[in-house]
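sanity check this record:

:::
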Amino acid sequence: DPPMKPRTPQKSKIETPAARRVWEQISLQERTALMLIVVVGVGMRFALPSHISIEHWDEAVYSCNRFFPEDGSYPGRYLYAPPLWPAIIEFTMLLSGATANAAVTPNLVFSALTVILCWWAARDWFGPAAGLSAAALAALNDFHIAYSRTALTDPSLCFWYLLAVYCTWRALSRNQLGQAIVAGLAAGAAWATKYNGWLTLAVALSGFIAWAIFERFDRRMWQSRLLTLAAIVVTAGVAWSPIWFSFKPGQYSEVLKNQAGYYVGLAGWTQSFVRQAANLRFFENWVSAASIAAALALPLLFRRRFGFLVLAVVLGLEAIPVGISPILIGPALVGPLLILWTSYRSGQTDDAARNRRLAAWLLAAWNIGLLVATPAYTPYPRLVMPWLISAILGTAAACSLLFEPAPPTGETAGKTGKIVRWVLVAAWVLFPLATLQFRRVDEGRLRFEGRSGAHPSAELVVGKVSISERAHSNLPIPGWMDRTVRANTILGAAGDIRATVEESLKSRPLHFVTFGEPAIVFNLNSHGIDAAPVSNFDFLAPGEPRVIQPSYLMAMPNSLPEFERLIAPYSKRLGQSLAIIHDTPSD
């Protein structure tokens, strides 16, 4: 046999293990806790659908696109909001029918997604403990639950607002053009949902400038990041440009004039702030109190810092008399600032630390900016919602300081960590106690008359400014209150009118002319009754063509004397008034 040739040794193949997906990097415990939080949050929002209706002026305007095929929207709709949100509601109605539940469904979905996005953003910024805390606070917040069950723009704005800020963080931290385009599209969606959605760009600009200054960027880093920021702004402008070109001549100036009418400025800032504080307090119940306890207790499952379980219980009990808002506002302001202080003090210069500081700067700009800007406008409760999301994330950032292990940088870091924890405990316990007010009436002091009885009410007094709260539903969740009273009143009135029509006309459809309340238009049309709005009564003037018969006028003016004054010149062309019905809208 010929000698065997020696085999050439083959190079062993070194297989690099594939990087685990992000979802696989999350522990089973955390995923289970998140799923439970989301299920509870969705249940809180979707419960009792029979109590959901369209009653608010603005939500009725947004929900009426389906009933105006010629004009495409409710008359003057552009004064109230850009077209994106009404278009989303109209699309939902095309899929499932023109009902109140269909109009509210997009907000229910967006609010549920906001809970998940709060978890994702807080986790990416400040760690797993912050993520679970943010998810618990968002899922169980009574105020967010209540407004998620409406067709108003604000719940969806919160989703786009948070998505825009989070994507801005990704774009600036990674300095990638693709991420900047995504951030710009999210900012454009926020802007197309509500006219103040452009504030996402203000948060991006102010947060970036503070970050760049304190990080001591050199010229090259300034230039590269400014290009990324410019890409975000340009993309947002391009995304919003179709709305700009949709305005007819003079319409955008009308929008600006209308928006300026809600501005109260510095003169009304204090009173508006107090009113908004009462608004938040009014919509809070035991679920909100439980959310702050859950925000602290859930991370205990992973970090085993059971010493803070007492703090969780104390804060949960404290939130019952004082409300969750005072407990949120302190950590919401202090949390990001403490993250910045501890990070700069420890001298961390790696990319992870720098990115964490960028998140803290963006969150601080968002929180402080809206805390100052929101009371400068008429204190409609829903205007607080974007600030509320930043407060939830800021509180989650504070939770990360309690539970996430400090970086190993020596004895100084240990002392800093203890200082931070004591500051947080003081902010959480002492600040809310400071909002407890005195029972006796004293115009020079701050007092709070707490809720009591089957139908609780409260009064908040600061100096000479007095805010009295109405009794709310005795349901355990304020957001579950029955919002169908106005719709039932309108439909009941239409039924009464149908009964008075002569037999020869009963086979013909009824037609309504409506004045003073878009909810009439929505609720009648959604039940197949033709209703068209008017802004005045000129159509009743002599010489004007007759309206379709049988026709009726249904109006909800601000007051009966106002209605009588407006209708007086045309009373001869009207038949006998059937009834004056007083409805009571929900809280």
Q: What stands out?
A: Residues 11-20, 437-460, 467-473 have pLDDT under 50 and may be disordered. The chain is about 60% helix and 5% strand. The beta strands are 446-449, 459-462, 465-468, 511-515, 530-533, 551-555. The two ends are 101 Å apart (CA to CA).
